[in-house]
Amino acid sequence: MENNAFTLVKHTESKPIGCKWIYKTKHYPDGMLRYKARLVVKGYEQVKGVDFDETYAPVGKLTTLRYLLCFMAYNSWNSDHLNVVTAFLNPEINKVVYAELPEGIDWLSESPRTGFLWLNKALYGLKQAPRLWHQSIDGFLLSIGFHKALADHNLYICNQGVMLLLYVDDIQLLYAESAKSRAIDVKESLMRQYKMKNLGPVKCHESRAAGS
Q1: What is the residue-averaged pLDDT of the chain?
Q2: Which of 121, 129, 127 is nearest to 7 (CA)?
């Protein structure tokens, strides 16, 4: 509701898509636990040409990441990690899509289990959600002075000693020490445009490394 993700309606013009809750437990490096619940739609019920057209996920190449890590180490660059909060709820949806009323929020309707959700934003699970998110952040990054690398369209380069690698809703920002002020400007611009977490310098947690 904070992101105006949907509008409650009594009737639909097309068959609504099912939805469900996804529960996840996140383990933090300091031992703390976080319990998350995310509402997702059952995208496999969507019909191409009716509910969506094209799909695309903004995922930087592993080869690009390896190169950037080597480049950063060799040239003594800095690298920060940013995470976009509920990234897919930023762009407006480009199709009329209805979803069933989720379990547990019957208070939305006048009587229990009546009504449908007319989606305003690209809820997680929608086939077109990653593409819509990429269109949104791609346009913004180009507007603040970045251009895309030819070899990887998720690598953005600024001529002032700053590079940015996009992996869906995770951002790795690399910059020379001499370009620190420009990097700060980029982070502030991103955080004004989107709700984000600045996670500081990139790091590898031992538990993740062992698990991989």
Answers
A1: 85
A2: 121
Cα 3 from Cα 84, distance rounded (Å): 14
Query: Which pTM value belongs to this model?
Result: 0.80
Give the number of domains in the chain: 1
Does some domain include residue 1?
no
DSSP letter for each residue of the chain: -TT--EEEES--SSPPBPEEEEEEEEE-TTS-EEEEEEEEE-GGG--BTTTBS-----B--HHHHHHHHHHHHHHT-EEEEEEETTGGGSSBPSS--EEEPPTT-GGGSSSTT--EEEESB--TT-TTHHHHHHHHHHHHHHHTT-EE-SS-TTEEEETTTEEEEEETTEEEEEE-GGGHHHHHHHHHHHHHHS-EEEEEE----HHHHHH-
Tens-place pLDDT, residues 31-58:
888 898 888 888 888 777 766 777 777 8
| In the block, residue with structure tokens 């895309």 | 148
In a domain, 175, yes or no: yes
